[in-house]
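step: validate -> pass
step: tokenize input -> pass
step: predict -> running
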Amino acid sequence: MAQKETKKAQYDVRLNWSGDYLFNQYPDGVLIICAKGIIIDVNDTFLKMTGYEKNDLLGKRMEILMPKGESRAKHVCLRKKYNKNPSKRGLESGVEPELLRKDGTSFPVDIMLSPLKTEQGMFTVTLVRDITEKQRILKNERAVKEELKAVFYSAPVAIYCLKPDRTVLSWSRAAENLFGYKAEEVVGKPYKLIPNIKGKKKECIALLDEVFTGKTVRDVHRRRLHKDGHLVDVSISAAPMYDENGKIYAATYSAEDISERLKAQERLNQLAFFDELTKLPNSASLQRQIENYFSNVKSGENRPLAVAIIELEGAREVTNTLGRQSGNELIKQVAKRIEAFFCKETNIYRTSRYEFVLTKENCGDPRIIMEAVEKIIEQIRLPFNIDNQTVHISASAGAAVAPLHGKNYEELLANVSLALNAAMGDNIRDVRFFSISIRTAAQASRQLDLELRHAFEKNEFELFYQPQISLKNGNLVGAEALVRWRHKEHGIIYPGGFIDALANNPISYKVGKWIMREAIEKCAFWRKHLQQDLRIGVNLFGSQFEHDIVEDVEDALVDFDLPANLLELEITENIALNSDLSIIKPLQKISDIGVGIAFDDFGTGYASLSYLIQYPLSRIKIDKSFLENVPKNSEKATIVSALIKMAHGLGLEVIAEGVENEEHIKFLCSKNCEEVQGYFYSKPLAEEEFIEFVKSAHFTKYKSCAAS
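step: predict -> pass
step: emit ->
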């Protein structure tokens, strides 16, 4: 085409764009192409887009901008087709053209074609827009949609969308699995999962509709209807879906099957509030019930609640002797007997291994609760068959009534426990009802405990010594160390007034260790300065076995240079009964180093015979109660004779306590009892008095008395 005609065409085209400025500043690239596909003109935007100079393109065919191959061939065909029917339009559907930059790289474009008639002929104005960024965004959007689609169909929780009219818009595979409906069965149809449960249907519908008001719902427990008719426990979350105008057009719901979670919660609830062995409610359940009761009392309810604690006695020994499995079987049988007393407004709890609690609502009459508990104890006293062995146990109980005896859970249970402790210390009654006197006694006991602590800190304890005499020759062979409390107000207090409280006091270990070391130190002093190898007897507390008693004994013997055979440790049957067989091992070690082990108060308990065999004893001490009216009391005389003979048969020596007259001496001599102690010879003496006793010349009296 002649240069003049080209310029004329350029002028005509640019005139349509209202001048060169608008033509070159147009945001899209503009090409002017003649019918033969020759580029007549391009604007500056297109040049920037492609990197070409204008002279690189003018007079060239449009195809140089097309990638070689199929794209160029297609473009030629499309151009010829367009020239036959020119009109304002884009490229045909399905064509995604790309153009080449000067550097050879290609980029996607949108093309808009517009015919332009001039005096020189028909031209085509081609608008070109770089859609690289647009395609990137679309690609990302497609990727996001695919990801969301993948999440929707692969999510482990059921996902479904509902329209405001409650028709199903979409339905995930997890929803198919959870509710049994395939997507084709529900999509486009009314929502079918609302169960027809009385009082619950409106609640279910309200949850569906609530989301369409713009609210988001999270983790709401509901029951939904499975296709086969059974109900499914689900946790539902939901959120509204908005269109570009901010209008809610649908709601997305997620539903997670929580059946197993609920079962697990039920199991945890069972473990938290029920005893695993007996299946009875436990102490946590008891606390919850009583706290609920007091909450109702504060709200104006005025119904009494009776509470009783039942403590088994002897069950621990069954466990220790027959084994834990047998002990568990015993507890289960006890529970069954107690459960027989279940009635309206009555509950039974197992609150510890050997403790049960009974509560009875609307019961303010002490006689009713006491009678019920007494019947339970009667049942407990009946024999049990455990592993083909007959077992006997008993029980004690304490009871109280709320709100009279407590304004809260802690106060009520504390008062019931006080009544139980009173019953356990009562040799006549198995059941005690709480009273102010019981609390007063408990407060006095606590005050005594505090005073005992103070006494130990202020060195108010001191040792007295009661001589022990050999019946073979009348010689003084030893002494028993006995603790006394020199009270600043009440003077000397004997052990009967405080020893039981001291044994149960946390300071008993320290006091017991002090007694042992003090006695050993004095015995070593007598040996050195009085030239007397006297044996010292020391009573032990049970708490001393909770520490390293072997080390305590060895340290004291070394510290004060006392031969081990001059120390005799005394244990009572109560220590053995309240301990397990683990105390035998330290006693054996103590015995192995030469220390004597004596069984004090022998014959007053329940299991002395078995302990004579199991424990490493060297001596038994016959309790003074057996010497009362001996030998006149033939029954007691027979018992003492049998005890001495049995001890000798086991290779043990015997010392008799409570000797008060010559008749006792003669009788014990006739039975070959080795040693005695008692008021006939001497009361317990303070240290200075005991030293004077040792130095005295009265031994001829003892020798002649023994010989007689």
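step: describe -> The first strand starts at residue 29 and ends at 34.
step: cleanup -> pass
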